[in-house]
Amino acid sequence: MTDSKMKSQSLQKWFSVLLLIALIVVLGVLSTRFSAAVDWTAGNRNTLTEASQAQLASMDGPIIVRAFVYSGDPLRREVEQDFGRYQRAKPDVELRFVDPSTQPQLVREFNIRQPGQIVLEYDGRRETIPGTTEPMVTTALQRLAVSGEQWVVFLTGHGERSISRAEDSLAMTAYANALRERGLKVQTVNLTETPAIPDNTSVLVLASPERAYLPGEIELVRDYVAGGGNLLWLADPDHPTGLAEVAAELGVTWLDGYAIFPNYQVIGTGHPGFFAATQYPSNPVTQGFDQITLFPLVRAMAVDPVNDWAMQPLLVASDAAWLETGDITSGTVALDDDDIPGPLLIGATLTRDVEVEGKNITQRVALIGDADFLSDLHLTELGNQGFGLNLAQWLALRDAQLNIQVPAAPDTEIVISPWGGKALVVGFVIVLPLLLLLVGVGRWFLRRRR
Q: Does residue 177 fall inside a structural domain?
């Protein structure tokens, strides 16, 4: 091989090495300026959900995030990653780190109790949260998004559903807590003890009273509705609804009886009196809502709007259903001449324009022939909680908050049966060490034979 050829090959090798180094440098520079991520988790739980993106889109203006984390703490990296998802969806989300050891004045100003707390600030309002999970952050943003206090008032004293008895599975304790998490204030009022509905009531809830209201209490509820107040009326079929004067003002007639759904075995509800809503009529409460909801033992209603009310169906049972007016405890039911055939109106909304204190507002009422679906026993089934939250948000005139509910990730836990756990223990503690021992003995034996 001539010297010229050797020099040419040497130059080619050095040129290839230089090209490789240049390529590595370019890739390194690009990696600092651009990034790409692929989410392989079930349910894409490392990607910002549509609910969180919708929440961010509803908030005009910057959001400031202050993370009170010590310098050098690995938690800072986690906070950057978690809020990086929010920054990609809304560029004016600003993340600021505060070292509690060097800025004690900010610790006092923001009332920080322990390192790692996060303070979200929007439009002059603040929320402090202990972590950075998406449900925690997005629900805090929901609370920040609405200015002022909005009260959801539950009437009590007549056998209505409780919102404070955690041991009662038919209570609405979890529902009340979910409302609080979304920034709504919740309280109860017994009109016998306090004969007045608070002036700051945004939504009044009649949670299926079991006993009749006194005439003075009925008049208070009538005055509230006549004055433009928003109302959520839940009426189980087990008890008379009462408040006939209020129903007349709304143009609603509650029908006595239990709705029966003969196709319950096909749907899989397990009971002919359970109503599974899989489709919804056009209604602002369920616009964009695509979850199935389950209503145990429902009654129907008839609405003939009066007093300028406009009605929109919310829950409608199919033609196959009927309202059983007879006894359902016998075990067998059938459609007869005394029953009311389907389709049945199970839920409806009413709206009208009214003038309150010189302002034109839209008054809203929601009527549901069931209260069990919001009880602690059934709230977490299918889309019940989302539907119940939509009702309250719509009645409180918080339309931008509809359908914003971050779903729980389906792959955060590994469930192993007792036998599976024992198999893992045997495999890793006994079988795997024995296999390694056998491999070692086998290699030693083969070497001995050589």
A: yes
